[in-house]
Each structure stands twice: as structure tokens, then as C-alpha cells.
């Protein structure tokens, strides 16, 4: 298209070089900034479990150094077309937005919302507000108390306690339920199937079957780094879906 337009003013080659090659190269490098500078400059208001950073975010800075980081990284958000809140994207990968605020510079989000109102896009996913708030509060505590480990131990389990036979009995009576064995607990992820970033099929693959070794589903391996190293927010959400504790010799019940 650029050479065709340039042909009408007698410079098809110039249009091809500048509007075609150079412009495309600039766009590509702006895109590459997401996986380079977006992991170098900015703040981490939601999680510090990886190197992703947030820019043009409404997080309070803790000093001149953070102020300087924000100033240096505002251009990054503009160049990457909305990836200024990259830390949010890594913390909540299933969210179609690059940031929770309506005022975040996020052209892709605005286009998707527009298409949604026209009926051309459906099934938009958002992170729960309670999860976003909890992540912000957790990181604030880490900022206020640097070097202090924030323990997140489970409170004493007050729910049901099952053995293998009881798990299989529950599964047989509820064949549509998707049950996982994680950290010595039976986790019912049925209501979460539509939200899982990796898709429902992946959860079904590692679910407890009616027969066989209950510990051979591979869910434990997949969840704790084998397939994906899940975030703190994901682990917290998983704990909310526990329905029973499994008592069996050799099973580690600690998260």
C-alpha cells in the first residue's frame, strides 16, 4: 500500500522505504520494548514474583528514585500501545485489560470494549476486585517492611476430612465436578473452569478420575512449577476452592 500511494507523487521507492520498511521496523521495536524495558523500569505495585514493571500507574511512590522511574517510563507506556501496566498483566494474565483503571493508557482495552458494546466480542474476563486489592495491600506491606518475610500460613482446617474412597465416592455422585488434588487438599475448580487462563481442558486433564491412583493426576506437579509457576494470587484463589483435606500416608498436606 505505501508504494502505491507514493506512486501518485512520483516516489514509490521512497514511500516503500520510509512508510513501509522504516515505519514497520519502528513499530516492531516498540513492541519489543514490552519484553525488555517493561521488565526494567517502573514499579511493582501488584507483585514482585517476576521482573515485570508498571508504568503510568496510580501507585504512590516511596521516594525520589521511584518518581524518577515513573518519569522515565511514561514514554514506554505510549510507545507500547498500552503495556504501561505490565506488572498487572503478569499478575492477572486472564484479564483482557492491561490495567484496572479506566484512565490507564490502554488503547487495546478501549477498542475491545467498543467491539464488545457492538456485540462483536464476548466473554471478556476481568480479575476480581478483591484479588487486585489484596495484591496491592500485600505489596504495600512489603514496601513498608522491607526484608521482613510475610508469612501466609493456612489457618487450621475446619472443613471435611476425606480418604481416597470418600473422594472417589464424591466424584462418582458428581461426575461433572472437576476435582484436583493440590497440597493434600481436594480442590473443586468447577466454577473456575471458564476463568482459567490455560483453559478448562487443561484442568480436566489433571482432575481426579473415578479409578486409579489419586496421586497420579499430575496436578501437584503442574501447579507448583512443572507446567506453570503460579502466582501468589493464583495460590490464594486455589485455597478458596478447597472442599476437603485428604488424609493418606505419604501425602504432604502443607502448601
Please identify which CATH superfamily of the domain at 160-246 we are dealing with: Cytochrome b5-like heme/steroid binding domain
CATH-defined fold name of the domain at 160-246: Flavocytochrome B2, Chain A, domain 1
User: C-alpha Rg, in Å?
Assistant: 24 Å
| Tally of strands | 4
Distance between the termini: 57 Å
- In the CATH hierarchy, what is the architecture of the domain at 160-246 at level 2? Roll
Listing every helix as H and every strand as E from the N terminus to the C terminus, the arrangement reads HHHHHHEHEEHHHE
Strand line-up across the major sheet: 1-4-3-2
What class, by secondary structure content? alpha+beta
Shape: elongated
Which features would summarize this protein structure in a list?
elongated, Cyt_B5-like_heme/steroid_sf, iron ion binding, Flavocytochrome B2, Chain A, domain 1, 255 residues, 4-stranded mixed β-sheet, disordered C terminus, transmembrane helix, single chain, alpha+beta, 42% helix
What does this structure look like?
Among the domains are: 36-117, no CATH class; 160-246, Cytochrome b5-like heme/steroid binding domain (Flavocytochrome B2, Chain A, domain 1, Roll). The chain has ten helices and four strands, in the order H-H-H-H-H-H-E-H-E-E-H-H-H-E. It has helices at 2-7, 12-32, 64-79, 86-91, 107-117, 129-144, 164-173, 200-205, 219-223, 232-240; strands at 160-162, 179-182, 185-188, 242-246. The chain has a four-stranded mixed beta sheet with strand order 1-4-3-2. The termini are far apart. Mean pLDDT is 81; it is low at 57-73 and 250-255.
Amino acid at each position: 500500500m505505501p508504494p502505491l500511494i507514493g506512486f501518485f507523487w512520483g516516489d514509490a521507492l521512497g514511500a516503500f522505504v520510509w512508510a513501509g520498511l522504516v515505519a514497520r521496523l519502528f513499530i516492531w521495536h516498540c513492541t519489543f520494548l514490552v519484553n525488555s524495558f517493561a521488565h526494567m523500569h517502573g514499579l511493582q505495585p501488584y507483585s514482585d514474583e517476576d521482573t515485570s514493571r508498571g508504568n503510568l500507574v496510580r501507585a504512590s511512590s516511596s521516594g525520589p528514585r521511584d518518581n524518577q522511574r515513573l518519569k522515565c517510563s511514561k514514554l514506554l507506556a505510549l510507545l507500547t500501545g498500552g503495556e504501561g501496566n505490565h506488572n498487572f498483566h503478569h499478575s492477572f494474565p486472564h484479564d483482557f485489560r492491561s490495567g484496572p483503571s479506566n484512565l490507564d493508557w490502554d488503547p487495546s482495552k478501549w477498542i475491545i470494549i467498543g467491539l464488545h458494546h457492538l456485540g462483536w466480542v464476548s466473554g471478556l474476563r476481568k480479575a476480581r476486585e478483591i484479588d487486585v486489592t489484596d495484591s496491592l495491600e500485600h505489596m504495600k506491606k512489603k514496601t513498608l517492611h522491607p526484608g521482613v518475610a510475610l508469612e501466609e500460613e493456612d489457618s487450621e482446617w475446619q472443613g471435611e476430612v476425606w480418604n481416597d474412597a470418600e473422594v472417589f465416592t464424591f466424584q462418582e455422585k458428581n461426575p461433572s465436578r472437576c476435582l484436583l488434588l493440590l497440597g493434600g487438599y481436594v480442590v473443586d475448580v468447577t466454577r473456575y473452569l471458564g476463568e482459567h487462563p490455560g483453559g478448562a481442558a487443561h484442568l480436566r486433564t489433571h482432575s481426579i478420575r473415578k479409578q486409579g491412583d489419586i496421586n497420579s493426576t499430575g496436578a501437584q506437579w503442574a501447579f507448583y512449577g512443572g507446567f506453570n509457576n503460579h502466582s501468589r494470587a493464583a495460590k490464594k484463589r486455589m485455597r478458596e476452592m478447597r472442599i476437603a483435606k485428604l488424609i493418606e500416608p505419604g501425602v504432604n498436606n502443607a502448601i
